[in-house]
Amino acid sequence: MTAVAPSTSMGLDSRKLGMWTFLASEFLFFGAFVSAYLLYIDETNGGPGIEIFDIPFTSVSSFVLLMSSLTMVLAHNSHVRGDLRRMRLWTLATAGQGMVFLGGQVYEFTVFYREGLDLTQSPFASSFFFLTGFHGAHVAIGVLLLLGLYSLSLTGKVKVGQDVKTEMVGLYWHFVDIIWVIIFTVVYLIPELRV
Amino acid sequence: MASTTAAAETPRLRPSKPTGFLSWVATTDHKRIGILYFWTVLAFFFIGGVESSLIRAQLAQAELSVLTPEIYNQMFTMHGITMVFLVVMPFAAAFFNYLLPLMIGARDVAFPRLNAFSYWFYLFGGIFLYSSFFLGGAPNGSWVGYAPLSTNAVSNMAFYAVGIQILGVSSLASAINFIVTIINMRAPGMTFMRMPMFVWMTLTTSFLLLFAVPIIAVALFMLQFDAVFNAQFFQPASGGDPILYQHLFWLFGHPEVYIMILPAMGIVSEVMPTFSRKPLFGYAAMAFAGAAIGFIGFGVWAHHMFTSAIGPVPRSAFAVATMFIAVPTGIKIFNWVFTMWGGRIRFTTAMLFSVGFVSMFTIGGLSGVMHAIVPHNAQQHDTYFVVAHFHYVLFGGALFGLISGVYYWFPKVTGRLMNEKLGKVHFWTWLFGFNLTFGPMHMSGLLGQPRRTAVLPGELGATVELYNLLSSLGVVVLAISASIFLYNLIRSIRSGEASGDDPWDARTIEWMTATPPKHHNFDVIPVVTSRDEFWHRKYAESEEGIPVAVPVGASVDEESDAGHDEHIHMPDPSLWPAIHTLGVLPLGYGLVYANWLLVGIGAVWMVAGMFGWIIEPLAEGDDDEPAVAGAAAH
Question: Which residues of B form the catalytic set?
């Protein structure tokens, strides 16, 4: 914290604007995957279909992921108040919940694979694994960002007053959560009504 | 800039010499990155030109066998990929990079290192695509890569899928960078409606990229997993739908054609007012027509698929939308004509290329409207008529506009003028060669000559053969013309006439800087009070509305003396973008060959590079908080 913060034309930090712009693009990315999934939802090629989903199990891991948004907010809030110790704690908690979710996804994929649903089985299988898998990859990158934020705050690279850094990771993390809300509804819940 | 104590405490991987090879690898200066783009584009343009010459040699007469069908397929595929992704798009990026901060009165783009990242991704993506020639043959399923044909293991389209993906990342990063720069880094007083038209077109193009690239990313991931990992997205045998690929591809592919043409439209909108000594006619209409093209451009993609199984209702809807998009385009054409109308026109080479753009693009636009008519489209689909159409908009349009920009801004970049006599020879041979090459294709296409066919069938008759011979001769003219351009370019860089700061009596603020511009662009960020700011600083208007020169000196900022740049804070060079992006090569080859070790090496490399990037401050002795470079408030 040396110089006076430079003013931008819009008054919004350029890094934040950049992150918002990137997330706008990401919506189209997941939108295309969701479209493909909806197109192929019944193309099971004789293999397992939507009846394979374990709604209670996925609900639990979804709940964990949604709660991680709360700890993310708390981490940012602590940073804004200058409490780096709590910020680290909540950041780690967020990353931990992200990893629990990823673990749940690995378990789910393994179970599905054993039951005969793999990437090469059918268009349904391909589009399911792609949509949820790419979301999982986004969660993994988010966990990496959170752990990076945590360790850089230990080395002094992330300081009190630089809460925009936590906010950037937070924006990304909330986006990943919101996408999961859409995926959980469209992929798991709505088709369940038809079974 | 760098405080010596801080540098001594933390020795870093940062080249400090302002010249030499390493200084270019590590550059974060938007002007240098623009120059890197330009030369890389010229190299790929040469390769793409060689490929097109081979195609035309094969088709010069019926039933020739200069190339085998296999090689022919690789040639037309790589020609298309090269010209679209490695020439026209990065050519526009070269202009965006160099000019955008200068035009809005900023010291650099919003994210200088991300800008370098975009360039290296582009370069490595191009090298990756071309390495396929040595690794079992280049992609051969055309630039559209229709599945399921392209998922066949012998077609080498995995290189296409991964290579275009890499180039897409480059485009996406640039798009974000330019959007943030334009929205957030304009000089005081540079409102949206005072921005040069080129900046408007950059903004529109960036938004198109932002929303189109993720869609092709999805299509390419699916394609690649079908091809390499046996996924079932587009395999009809298991219920997959090839039409899905077409939709995803063209949902990107049609905005893509506007991504290629809008930058050229922006350039022409700068060149024409300058050489007509008139403001751009209908500025607001031009800006909003560009935005309208951007919006409607997302709703016309299925006109590429009129002969696919999409049904009569989509056909009608997309036919109407396609005709509709001609309206904003027409607005632009009329505005350029009215800009010239009654102006004191100087036909410099840059102006000639701009006029050439408007006339050739209009021809291409008219044949485009013909494609909107569904029965007509069915007749023309996959014939040379289509080839003629898109070369008139991309070569006669985009490329003419971009070359116009080269002649126009060459003095800004080098401080020298390009030779006008050679330039005019270049223009007229270019115009003649272009029309000779692509004009006859309209006719041979209507007579039934199919696209993407390795051998010109003899049964099409002598007339079609004659048209093809003319086309092939046209390529010879174009090759000579391009050599003249290259000669002029190199000779002018070495020994061109000195240009001074404002050789064209230009209108926009990039001409207010030193020539070539200093590293920090502006000693003092100008305060903008009107559209065509520089013009209004030079000329007042008499009562009859005739421009009267303002006394010398009044146009220069009083404070812009030497020594004022001492404390301007600029980002330092950084090697990390280049190091980080190098990891994409093992990652890419790993994905093509399903080699998880290589994928792992690439991924770890890129993550490590990213952390190196994050830990290194933007400028030495700086805590990277707040962001530096080009803040409007300086």
Answer: 79, 108, 143, 170-171, 254, 256, 258, 269, 303-304, 329, 332, 451
The residues, ordered by sequence, that sit 6+ positions from B161 with a Cβ below 8 Å of its Cβ are B145, B220, B221, B223, B224, B227
pLDDT (tens digit, 9 = 90+) per residue, A41-80?
A: 999 999 999 999 999 999 999 999 999 999 999 999 999 9
pLDDT digits (tens, 9 = 90+) for B223-246: 999 999 999 999 999 999 999 999
- In the CATH hierarchy, which fold is given to the domain comprising B37-508? Cytochrome C Oxidase; Chain A (1.20.210)
Minimal Cβ distance to B232: which of A6, A123, A162:
A123
CATH of the domain at A98: 1.20.120.80
A4 assigned to some structural domain:
no
The structural domain count of chain A equals 1
Q: Which of B9, B218, B298 is the mutation pick for testing A, counting most A CBs within 10 A? A: B218
Optimal mutation site among B5, B623, B624, interface A, most CBs of chain A within 10 A:
B623
CA distance A71 to A78: 10
| Structural domain contains residue A95 | yes
B107 inside 8 A of chain A by CB? no
Instruction: Say which of B180, B219, B244 has its CB closest to residue A18.
Output: B180
Query: Which residues on adjacent β-strands are paired with residue B547?
Result: B541
SS3 B313: helix
At B623, the pLDDT band (50, 70, 90 cuts) reads: low
How many Cα neighbours within 13 Å face the side chain of A8?
21
Residue span of the structural domain in which A61 resides:
14-41+48-192
- The ipTM is 0.94
Determine, yes or no, domain membership for A8. Answer: no
Do the chains contact at A17 and B634, CB–CB below 8 Å? no
pLDDT on residue B553: 53
